[in-house]
Design a protein that fits this description.
Helix content: 25-40%
Keywords: 2Fe-2S, Iron, Iron-sulfur, Metal-binding
Number of domains: 3
Structural class: alpha+beta
Strand content: 15-25%
Pfam families: Rieske (PF00355), SCP2_Rv3818 (PF25451)
Protein name: UDP-MurNAc hydroxylase
CATH superfamily of the largest domain: Ribonuclease Z/Hydroxyacylglutathione hydrolase-like
CATH class of the largest domain: Alpha Beta
Bound molecules: FE2/S2 (inorganic) cluster
CATH topology of the largest domain: Metallo-beta-lactamase, Chain A
Number of strands: 27
InterPro entries: RibonucZ/Hydroxyglut_hydro, Rieske_2Fe-2S, Rieske_2Fe-2S_sf, SCP2_Rv3818
Distance between the termini: 48 Å
Shape: globular
GO molecular function, one term: 2 iron, 2 sulfur cluster binding
Largest sheet: 8 strands, mixed
Radius of gyration: 23 Å
Length: 526
């Protein structure tokens, strides 16, 4: 099996029974904030795009690059579709001219002509990607590969059960706006960033250890930030709180925990993977490339400047009545929302900075009051500050997912009172009837389901499944004193009270080993 690195989470897998192109991303994403690193725009995409199968793990724009798919990828390719709850991905593919689809039943092996086997695991909670993320498992001629991508399944047993995996490709770096955009003192930001960076690596080691593949390929990040306004987010300034470590940092951190089987794929690198081993060729020596990282980024920044400027010129739509449009689109969703609105639990304020860089219009999305209105000097739980033109553009293009556009752009700042609230972001990624209904239904089901199984961790008996996204705490749970940490996403819980210390709601059931067993309680948590 041949694996060609094509940048970020993208790769082309070639076998004698056919080729699969995964997640081809080239054009900047999220308001021209993210670019693939290392640069992959100079690859021969005309040739790479002539494939038998196309797999896109999810709709995040650093995976689903509509322009590139339209311009370069063969429309004869059969699209391997994860079993997502909404038809959005298929609709987007159809709009681009793709007509051949294979809807892969979730977690079931599908044998394609010639003996190529695939299995796709779809993750479908409202917090998984834009309502869905997925991983692809491939087997041909006894060689097995897992493209885990940036998906975070609770465990990898469904893949491990299919036999020893030879190549495991997974994310290790950051892909979020936290903590950089928060209005915090620099020292706090650095401390939070460092925690996050450590947690990302810990999670990666855990997945690697779960699967014990012969070879581990760090993929799906980091992106690079080429706009001058975002340049500081690149991990080139010696900031230990930077959440975007690159593949060379992965190799050195992995070595510290005894990892010796890491393989970095640059765009154009080719790995031949067999049951016996892997041999890799690179377009330039990997160490030399990373030693010249700053020069690479600076050259890219100059080359991509016109692309960024052209994008920026398209964002302003002065004719859009922002308050009126937000009311028209968001109020009907507030009316329908039970779980998300209750989970947010307070007003969320948007400060929109005008074209002059000074004037500010403040708009409140009032979740309890179920209305969108001008800010009225009240206390708010969350406040976002961004350029008015970005919101104008989202309204102009009728964007239903503000996470997959505004928030991932990092072109905003944020402040909040109290804990992180996942419902805020879940709501703003569900600005359509279809998505909102799905998310509401998902929370409804999960609130009703009881989770009666308990386990013992240290001095504590706790529910087996994490109250966040059901990670198995026998594997991911660590108890330190009276605190439980679930290492899948790093959420912490105070065991005596059961309170989640990371986010609103999500209470955990727990009692001391030597205490009387309380009656099992499927407590409401939001
Ligand atoms: S499943 Fe996310 S922190 Fe436990």
């Amino acid at each position: 099996m041949r694996v060609t690195g094509t940048g970020h989470a993208s790769m082309r897998i070639d076998t004698a029974a056919g080729s699969i192109l995964c997640d081809p991303w080239v054009n900047p994403a999220y308001f021209a904030s993210w670019f693939p690193f290392p640069d992959n725009s100079l690859l021969d995409w005309e040739t790479l795009g002539q494939v038998d199968y196309l797999y896109v793990s999810h709709l995040h724009r650093d995976h689903f690059d509509a322009k590139h798919l339209r311009d370069f990828i063969s429309k004869d390719a059969t699209v391997l579709l994860p079993e997502f709850p909404t038809s959005e991905m298929e609709d987007e593919f159809r709009a681009l001219g793709f007509t051949k689809f294979l809807r892969a039943p979730n977690e079931q092996v599908v044998e394609l002509p010639g003996g190529l086997k695939i299995m796709i695991q779809a993750l479908t909670s409202p917090t998984d990607g834009p309502i869905g993320d997925s991983s692809l498992w491939v087997e041909y001629d006894g060689v097995r590969l897992l493209n885990q991508n940036d998906a975070r399944p609770t465990d990898l047993s469904v893949f491990a059960e299919l036999g020893h995996v030879h190549a495991h490709l997974l994310q290790f770096s950051g892909a979020i706006w936290y903590p950089m955009v928060y209005e915090l003192p620099q020292a706090a930001k650095t401390a939070f960033g460092k925690q996050k960076r450590d947690r990302q690596f810990d999670r990666t080691w855990r997945y690697i250890d779960d699967l014990k593949a012969d070879h581990v390929f760090p993929i799906a990040g980091p992106p690079c930030f080429l706009d001058d306004a975002l340049w500081q987010f690149n991990d080139i300034h010696g900031d230990e709180g930077n959440i975007f470590p690159d593949q060379s940092v992965f190799l050195s951190e992995y070595a510290k925990v005894g990892g010796t089987n890491g393989i970095v794929l640059l765009p154009g690198s080719v790995a031949e993977v067999t049951t016996e081993g892997a041999s890799t060729t690179h377009p330039v020596p990997v160490e030399e490339f990373f030693a010249n990282k700053v020069a690479h980024l600076e050259e890219m920044r100059e080359r991509k400047r016109p692309v960024i400027e052209a994008e920026k010129a398209s964002w302003r739509h002065p004719e859009v009545d922002v308050l009126g449009e937000m009311k028209r689109r968001i109020e009907p969703l507030l009316d329908e929302s039970i779980y998300l609105a209750k989970g947010v639990g307070g007003p969320v304020r948007f400060d929109l900075v005008g074209y002059d860089g000074e004037s500010v219009e403040s708009i409140v999305v009032d979740f309890p009051g179920k209305e969108v209105r001008p800010y009225a000097d009240e206390k708010v739980r969350y406040r976002f500050r961004t350029e008015r033109s970005l919101i104008e553009h989202l309204l102009f293009i009728d964007e239903v997912d503000w996470v997959n556009s505004l928030f991932l752009s990092c072109r905003f700042s944020a402040a909040r009172i109290g804990q992180y609230n996942e419902f805020v972001y879940a709501f703003f990624k569900c600005l359509s009837e279809e998505r909102l209904q799905y998310a509401e239904g998902w929370y409804d089901e999960h609130e009703r389901s009881t989770d009666a199984e308990d386990i013992t961790l240290g001095d504590w008996v706790v529910q087996r499944r994490c109250p966040h996204l059901k990670a198995d705490l026998t594997r991911f749970g660590i108890v330190d004193g009276d605190q439980l940490t679930c290492q899948l996403h790093g959420w912490r819980f105070d065991l005596p009270s059961g309170r989640c210390l990371t986010s609103v709601g999500h209470k955990v059931r727990a009692h001391r080993v030597d205490a009387e067993t309380p009656a099992p309680a499927g407590e409401a948590v939001i």
